[in-house]
Amino acid sequence: MSKKVKYASEGKSYQTSINIKSTLIFIVLILLTIICLGPIYIMVMNATREHSDIVLHGISLIPGKELLNNLKVLQNNDLYSGFYHPLIGMKNSLIIASSCCALTVFFSGLTAYGLVVYDFKMSGPMFTFILAVMMVPTQVTSVGFLNLIIDLKMLDSYIPLIIPSIAAPAIVFFMRQYMLSSFPLDIIEAARIDGSNEFRTFLTISIPMMKPAFAVQAIFAFIQKWNDYYNQSLVLVSGEPSQLTMPMMIQKVIAIDRTPNQGANYLAITLSIIPVIVIYLVLSKYIIAGVAAGGVKE
After folding, report:
1. Which residues lie below 8 Å from residue 11, measured CB to CB, with a gap of 6+?
2. Is there a contact between 108 and 295 (Cβ–Cβ < 8 Å)?
3. How far apart are CA 100 and CA 218, in angstroms?
4. In angstroms, rounded to a whole number, what is the distance separating the alpha carbons of residues 250 and 253?
5. 187-236, pLDDT tens digit by residue?
6. Considering the entire predicted model, what is its pTM?
7. For the residues 57-73, what does the mean pLDDT come to?
8. Could you give the C-alpha distances from 169 to 127, 130, 143, 165, 238, in angstroms and in order?
9. How many CA atoms lie within 13 A of 202 on its CB side?
10. Rounded to whole angstroms, how far apart are CA atoms 182 and 194?
11. How far, in Å, CA of 283 to CA of 223, rounded?
């Protein structure tokens, strides 16, 4: 009888410790959620408030009533209307981000496929070289990149912003790790026996099986290119309103230093993140599966 009481006491103590750990983890996750989503919520609330209210009272968790007025300011005020055209900016940014995203994900997946599926002597050194390239900051190569664009007469063109996305070392690394952890090579051998050529095997078999990895990297690539103000400002130098992307327009909005309207500024920033949120919501179900599988070590 005493043993039963002892085992029951130990079981109750163990369950209590599990409950405490679960509660602490839940509290930490709630705090992280507030830290991540809090600034976005405040930004959206400020987009509905008046300039004087933001300046006098700072942060507010309650929405205001000036959303339409702030939108009118963005459309009609001479300080904004000369360069801020959200539909044009979104169109230009979508062209660049979508094209870069498609090229990055496809060719990175193809490279990772070649490194994993084919057994050749240079696969290891080539992967090491890819990792070395990943360590080089973008700013280090900016001067040479700009000189090349000038020599090719491609300034004020979207081509130099899109084509280099074919080479994405970080995404190649993720794709390779994903394939090493969860990609069955026996299926590739079976496809070869059935007479399928290599490229067709990649398109019809590998891509559907790597859908979680493709989806999660598509999100990261799209967000990165959507927010890429540095390279866009380096290449698109004319400043024509019809050519500006959303990051360039937002930078001009923030740079207004005479009679700025904080409510209109917050609204402009809020509008700029809508496509990113939509893309994230559409593909978010693949993030956990993709990161979990791709993060497993060999």
Report:
1. none
2. no
3. 10
4. 5
5. 888 888 888 888 888 888 888 888 888 888 888 899 889 988 888 988 88
6. 0.80
7. 85
8. 9, 6, 20, 10, 31
9. 15
10. 22
11. 12
